[in-house]
């Protein structure tokens, strides 16, 4: 690669946190006007590296060169001023400001009287949004936008600063398939405009669509690159990430099923705003011990709302009946659900699953107080042992059980939420997108774990929007479309075509 085609170079970058070396002598090049993809397992150091490149962490060892010139960014603003923008997984917009106000925050245009020139700012915003195929009026409040559109606003912000390098950290984790297509077109246009992209994602299929090259990180070290994408196979990518082949990507064991553990009949959930419309409409199914039942649907199909309704989170507005072990029960809160042997691993781990400020061991034990209280006193030995067991079983990468949960990598935070619910030893487990943000190796581990839970007699209900995942791990698949059930398939009958056709009914 000729020097002028390298926009950004990292030389021997080391970053240490208390007790953890997140990056160890990492050297790599970012190629100009290419999609440079960073791959690696959970905790490999990808996000830490992106944060150094974008000025979030000004303190590190080693050297950064931008267009051959040494740089040291003191803040994200400083990096942005030098043409490096980052689009974080959790978007950073202010919901109750307009798109224009968000885009121009801190660099507002004023007219000759010193007044904010909204006309001009709206015009520029409109033009930026048009470049991104987003036709929403610039004065729309950000709170009213879908996640995909909010991401487009973040990209528009980067374009306004004429960013030369745009860093995207798992940009497709919360957007619809249609929005992913728009994002990929935007990336292609940015490349034509000589913008360089640094991209992180665990979705291997999408990476093959957009990557120009792969850079592998493992345990904080740079392990190599794949430059010749056309000839690369999925196995090559997995080897780069994990350091070995993962043979036999998981397929569910065919286990004998036990008695019915859960049955729901006629579950409906009206919308708060318009009572004649429904988020969940007349859903009935049963779940047996040892069964892994999948719920597939496109975004907005009502899958998450269905799980929440059964779990007692909408008890005031729901209708329908719930039976556990053949007995009808009324569940009016999450506490009721837990007392009746249910566990729910939610989709949004930061909002619903994890207290980020708390150490790992507290998050693990939080829903299992009865197991760690002896004679009315909390037994901290039992509490730590419980955490250690799950840290080991789920292979959670943390410097110690006492580490603050917010310091764990995204994928490892997800595993802590899973541990919290497994520790309650439920008989019915709801998993909502359990492997979002989880690397290919850990995904396999989680699939085996689900299988083992089923073997022990749990009934498992899994919501997933990844078709290959749902087809590999479930005995039976319910498809939802427009708030109702539109198809049910056994693992043997299910094909991608049949499931997709039912989902878009
Ligand atoms: N602020 C922090 N304090 C302590 N340790 C940290 C901090 N930030 C990251 N780490 C640790 O550094 C390592 C690398 O984390 P990083 O978030 O960069 O991984 P990642 O490759 O982005 O993982 P994922 O795919 O799960 O998002 C992990 O072991 C993590 O626990």
From TrEMBL:
Q: Which Gene3D superfamilies match?
A: P-loop containing nucleotide triphosphate hydrolases
**Subcellular location(s) of the protein:** Cell membrane
Q: Which domain of life is it from?
A: Bacteria
The UniProt record lists the ABC transporter domain at: 8-244, 262-505
The record's InterPro entries line, in alphabetical order, gives: AAA+_ATPase, ABC_carbohydrate_import_ATPase, ABC_transporter-like_ATP-bd, ABC_transporter-like_CS, P-loop_NTPase
Q: How does it sit in the membrane?
A: Peripheral membrane protein
UniProt keywords (A-Z) are:
ATP-binding, Cell membrane, Membrane, Nucleotide-binding, Repeat, Sugar transport, Translocase, Transport
Q: Which GO terms describe its molecular function?
A: ATP binding; ATP hydrolysis activity
* Cellular component GO terms held in the UniProt record: plasma membrane
What is the protein's name according to its record? Answer: Ribose transport system ATP-binding protein
Give the species.
Answer: Arenibacter troitsensis
